[in-house]
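Lab manual, section 2.4: Encoding a predicted structure.

Procedure: take the sequence of the chain (298 residues), apply the prediction step described in section 2.3, and record the output as structure tokens. A sample record is shown.
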Amino acid sequence: MSDAPRQTALHGIYFKLSALVLFCTMDAMVKGLGGTYGSFQLMVFRSGVALVPVAVLIWHAGGIRVVRSNRPWLQALRVAIGFGSMFGFFYAFPRMPLVDAYAISFSAPLFMVALSVLILKEPVGWRRWTAVGVGFAGVLIMLDPWGIEFHAVSLIILAATFCYSLSTVMVRLLSRHDPDVVTLFWFAIVGTVISLACAVPEWIWPPAMDWVWLLTLGLLGGFAQILITRAWRLAPAAILAPFDYASIVLAMAFGYLWFKEEPSWTVWYGLPLVMGSGLYILHREQVRARERKKSLIP
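Recorded output:
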């Protein structure tokens, strides 16, 4: 890799790590505020305030005319699935240890492999399918369905992770037709409207200090979304994806320092299998990319 691409990839890594810090901080705030406010009310601030940085992007891109989608029905489906994912995480974070929720959410790359076959028609060999099987064994260990501590919130996190994975694959599909700003805008605007409609019946008017926390939550989510989108443009997925696992350290730190939580014992047994399978899948992606590049050389 020459100096210029290496420098670009390094910037992508910085953006990715910055986004992870913001996202994890936002999730900890969701957990802390979730004992007072409903999930939909928190989602109003997550989506509504995020429109501020998105609006700046739209302005720089040429104004409101740029948000017209070439695949409106596909955008609508992506918004619905993404909304379901966000609700699942916002509902579950206040109800289980943060590090446990993050550990289960690391099953996302495993779902993405299967969904890429179905939606993007990408070929997947036996090695990656084996890694998927090992990873899901790790997820099953972390869920501990036969243990006395098993509860349905773990399944909600798993369902939210599946929706997140499907949403991510759909974003890859939409990137063939629409710029990133279009996807960001429609998710933020529709998510705000639906969340507000659902939140109104149980709305709790926040005191002054909580307004600060709620607005900060939304800004963190909005800027993190922009940073992560920029990161994927600057560096290949095979370089960036392993850094996702750094968030488990942040989740553990927030959980212990803020909420006095410790990971469930099953996490220590299942997490290495999930992380190992995810990293192996990324390794196979790199191998396949090199093989495709060689096949193009005359």
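Check your result against the sample. The mean pLDDT is 82.
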